[in-house]
Amino acid sequence: MFKDKLVKPITALVNLTPDRLVKSFCGQLVPIFFLHRMYPGYDVTDRSIVQHLEWCLEYIRKNNYHPITLKELVLSRVEQRTLPKKAVVFTLDDGFYDQYEIAEPLFKKFDTPYTCFVISEFLEQKLWPWDDQIRYGIENSKLSVLSIDLPDGSRLNFSRVSDTDEAIIAKIHHQLKLLDQTHMYAWLGTFYQQLHVEQPAEIPEHYRPMTWSQAQKLIDGGNDIAPHTQTHRILSRLSDIESEQEILGSWNMLKEKLKGAAPVFAYPTGRIADYSEREMSTISQSELTCAVSTVPGHVKLASKNENLPRFVFPDNRFDFIQYLSYIEAMKEKISRH
Ligand SMILES: [Zn+2]
């Protein structure tokens, strides 16, 4: 791959640039990465994500970056303490079993702590994420023409001759994120019926959560477990009461179930439209010390703790190094000028 050829030169450039030069031009920069599943598709034996992550964690160590937890990052911001040089943070979203079973030994091998944001009702096994159920439904439907009535009464039509499953899933996700999500889980029953797919009575193997005791083991091993709502519904599409309940209810559940849950939060799906001032104010008035989004960017001195950006963990080495170092921030700055 062409980009791989650039790994050596970009590493040399980054390592040769004096720290004070970066600081004076870009200020202090901390990247927070977020990851999701530890294997692509349904093939648990596919090691491609694990191998890529392993390369990146090794890179961090060799090039003297300093992995810290999100909790530590926020604490040093609040107390205005100096951060370790070249600090970097890893986070994993939702609380799937592989985020313990596969991720934990890998991160441990490189002494890198991570924060796992868990959906509390998912760990309780009372539900599994609605967005994954959309995927499951579509991938298991044998119909060649799909007609789906959404919760607001509007209809989406697809032909599986012209539309790929990925495109159909993306379109349904997109539409649902714009609608009132109060009755999302009740609506899923209708969704499965329309697809002629039997609604799973239990969470399918691939989609199962980690257990509470695995979550506790993560904490005991120096990682963090933190709240990611109760049900993963989009907060900006819920009433005031429900939005607050999703945030504080998940935090309270974690405190009840775990010793040492971390008071940091992640907005479900986390795009700019998925949360608002209302959610940020719930966070700042609570025990929670920060909330992260999925809006890309480095954490800077001026970032608000209730609204910290994160980079999706890139699938290639070159982009990883750009986000990890100052390159991405420099590019952003230059393009703005
Ligand atoms: Zn999530």
TrEMBL record:
Gene Ontology molecular function terms on file: hydrolase activity, acting on carbon-nitrogen (but not peptide) bonds
Subcellular location: Secreted
Gene Ontology cellular-component terms listed: extracellular region
Principal location listed in the UniProt entry: secreted
InterPro entries the record matches: Glyco_hydro/deAcase_b/a-brl, NODB_dom, Polysacch_Deacetylase
Signal peptide positions on this chain: none
EC number, UniProt record: 3.-.-.-
Start and end residues of each NodB homology domain: 81-279
Lineage: superkingdom: Bacteria
GO biological process: carbohydrate metabolic process
Keywords, sorted A to Z: Hydrolase, Signal
Pfam family membership, one: Polysacc_deac_1
Name of the protein in question: Polysaccharide deacetylase family protein
Originating organism: Pleionea litopenaei
